[in-house]
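Worked example

This section walks through a single chain of length 531. The input is the sequence exactly as stored; nothing has been trimmed or padded.
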Amino acid sequence: MTSAVAPKAGRREWLGLAVLALPTLLVSVDVFVLLLALPRLSADLHANSVQQLWISDIYGFLLAGFLVTMGTLGDRIGRRRLLLIGAALFGIMSLVSAYSRSPGMLIIARALLGIAGATLTPSTLGLISNMFRDAKQRTIAVSLWGGMWTLGAIIGPIIGGVMLSNFWWGSVFLLGVPVMILLVIVGPILLPEYKQANAARIDLPSVALSLGAILPTIYGIKQLARNGWSAVPIIAVIVGIALAVVFVRRQRVLTDPLLDLKLFRDRTFSTALGSLATYSFIGGGTMLFMLLYFQLVAGMSPLKAGLSMTPGMLAGMVAFGLTPMIASKFRPAYVIAGGLIASTIVLLFLTQVKPTGGSATLIVGFAIFSFFGVPLVALGTGLVVGVAPPEKGGSAGSLTQLSNEFGATLGVALLGTLGFFVYRQVIDGRLPAGLSGDVASAARDSMVGTVTTSGSLSPQLQEALLTQARIAFTDGVRTVMGICAVLLFALSVLIAVNLRHLPPIGHEKPAEEQPGTDDDVPSVLTETAND
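Given that input, the structure is written out below as tokens.
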């Protein structure tokens, strides 16, 4: 196989990237403004606790459930077409959400928003992989694209706070309408169309199996993390895993599967994808306990706790900008592994956080952790979509987001369970004398229970109980940080070993290492760019 020089992207591709960044920024902002708007909309719509959970969760459930299907669908019917269809649906459902008159109406609108959202990441990453064929340019493009999510996390609480201070709760959903209108208008002008030539129909039983595998599993994990061990979520997880096994077996025998399992045979692809999932697992757990520490131990409001993560988000944005430059001079394996080792040191430092005055330590620690973790996110995502065959770009893009969703959900569930277990073990032997049975029971159950019930106590007894609860909860935080440090170090070693064969970004690989050349593209893709 001869080596071919990948074509360079021009002004049109870079303008197209700006268009593709819009839905990424919007989805990130949408996540954070909903958290701020939830108390007010729940009061106005008279939503009970169960309805509030579905309003906040249904979007993520259906987004994750439809990722695999939408990634493959975009490869087959056209990534630009699917992106524009999804953008139009997202805009319409944002409008419906803003003017919902009942909890049921809002839940349905959020569900359809989740399905629309599932079209965005696979389509955008798939288009980026085709628009930016040069590895160095693709790394820059993916870094800029990923930085938009971080930017959304920064400005989301700010925009949401301003809008909720001046307008009704539905105004936060209207943010998506002009953005999606702009995308629908300029997308056909700036974005080329890519689709798989002579693609077969989507296998509907595989779609059903993928939904049956993903939805119950995520639901069960979230419920276990939120409410502890109970029969229904455990059964849901078991059903999801069983259907996942059936799904995998079906993909192996299909001539044109919904998910091509051959992608996982590539060492670079499987290592990068697994690393992204593991990092999301660690990030989900560490961020959970940092936010809980800020609120339960330091006494911050939810908004102030969220804003305390802003320095970390800003550090991440800086790292997204620097990563392509560094990775063009050093091997990706060493850039990623070096960053993870630095993050490991930060987590080890955070195992020494104190029950009082630890907020500054966590804020600074999270900023450094985020900075050094970004190379994995930026380069790992680029490797996943870059080594996948061009006709599988959408499918590869869907897997990156799915791995992030599963990793973060599992991290919150498992690491949350571990941290709360440590809290319960420590607080059980530290409860001050004189507590009623109800207060003692609530204190043993959770730190939230301690804070909620301690108001009925005398000032001296309340302070004694809260002091011991802070100590117990901080011990849980330390344990989680220590476990994550071990996992992160192991991940750095795995990446350094498995990806060490990759040259610096932009340096030509030997022909025998290339998964394919640009000469292969016309046989599997049809391009109908609007020139």
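What to look for: The radius of gyration is 24 Å.
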